[in-house]
């Protein structure tokens, strides 16, 4: 396998501040664009110089471990917070959202990990929660049930009964109802916050299938995840975050699944850990040697000068400015 520095992707390591990937052959301006966006909370730097584009009919995957800055990025794009630095554009126009409602009015919908559903309410009631259809001052229940059923079918979800409590659905099905709800109410950009984090393999596959369907319907999808194995099959672009900084900004043609996994793993950290285990001797040393072999196989060792090592150096330097 080629190492990251031997590929086009390797020329965009963090520390060189990867530029926005461009329109990738698409016509028109991106649905969402961040340029050098950052966020500070007092002396704490949560995000620093993030460049990102989301186009219609594309899936942009944002990957990073806990504390990487994914939640802060969601809050900026979803309208909960404003960036402290840089610019945020929607369809080419700079915006300054003061609430998620304003973002939603511009077609940016966020599906959080907890889904914001009421488990004991029927599927159709959750579908229209806060957006009820009324006729003569009363809720038009038959119309809402039909619209809910039709929208779910359009997304390929065939529920037996939209009257069943949403809490009786599987985790994957609940995610798909939330995605369908956002599409129905006019979302152009769909932000999915770790939709597969608590799901098994089969249910994760269900969610990934509906992400692809949302893309095929022309939506721009932002898929937040820490799992490169879920991101790579559906993603068109990949933004990797580490401690609030970008450690890579790639189009799919620029990076392989193995390289993406290696960059996520953090070559310097794995290499240091393997050396610590080897120095302990005994069974720990055996485990350390296995880890060292994995690092070399992924092409992210310190000696190879891989992208993850450069990324770690960049983020360490950035971290020195933090309290």
Could you explain how this protein is built, in words?
This protein is 38% helix and 21% strand. The strands form three sheets. A six-stranded mixed β-sheet has the order 6-9-10-3-11-12, sandwiched between helices. The protein has a four-stranded antiparallel β-sheet with strand order 2-1-4-5, with helices on one face. It starts with 31 loop residues before the first strand and ends with a helix. The protein has helices at 70-77, 100-105, 123-127, 141-154, 171-184, 201-216, 228-234, 257-265, 267-280, 282-298, 307-319; strands at residues 32-41, 44-54, 58-63, 85-90, 93-94, 108-111, 134-135, 138-139, 189-193, 220-225, 237-242, 245-251. It is built from eleven helices and twelve strands. The model is unreliable at 1-26 and 302-323 (pLDDT under 50). It is α/β, with parallel strands linked by helices and 323 residues long. The protein has a domain at 9-107 and 188-264: P-loop containing nucleotide triphosphate hydrolases (Rossmann fold), CATH 3.40.50. Helix 5 packs parallel to helix 6 (201-216) and helix 9 (267-280) runs antiparallel to helix 10 (282-298). The protein is globular, with a radius of gyration of 21 Å.
Descriptive keywords:
alpha/beta, disordered N terminus, Rossmann fold, 323 residues, six-stranded mixed β-sheet, 11 helices, disordered C terminus
Could you give a quick summary of the protein structure above?
The protein has a domain at 9-107 and 188-264: Rossmann fold, CATH 3.40.50. Helix content is 38%, strand content 21%. The protein is built from eleven helices and twelve strands.
